[in-house]
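Fold this: Sulfotransferase
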Amino acid sequence: MGVVATHTRLEPRPSDVFLASFPKSGTTWLKALAFATLNRAKNPPCDHPLRHRNSHDCVQSLGMAPRPRRTEVMCSRSSFILHACSPASGGRIVYICRDPKDALVSLWFFAKKMATTAARANDNPRPPTSFTIEEALELFCDGRCVAGPQWQHVVEYWEESRRRPDKVLFLRYEPGNAQRPYEQT
């Protein structure tokens, strides 16, 4: 079954927990935490799957959502599925937000890495021309990036978390008011 058909047919259950984020905003970390929490009784720490595999290998994904957002659902049957939903969908949602400048830098490095990987796969000896960080910043601020405007994505989930705090948990990854370990005081 195709991604769009699966998204259309998948009805969220009240017991479903959706993991949502803007790309490059802590999805891997959030998936690892959710997977470890859900499977803590089945897997002793000394032989936990996350010690040997990436959280993306432990989590099933169907692909990008038809709408420009990434949302993953952790079902009560202990599997994860990529699913398109809005913050007002059924089930519960855990949303992870990252500082925009950190999301931009991560997205920029990831795009450069993917372009280089694609060029090598096509036996292209010249590395691809990529956006400068200044060009990437301008596109990001204009909302012309892979998932649309980052601020709009975050605000949509923030507002829903304020309306339905029992259904939407809004988390911050690398909050701006915390001192980072590499910063000097």
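The domain at 16-173 is CATH 3.40.50.300 (Rossmann fold). The radius of gyration is 18 Å.
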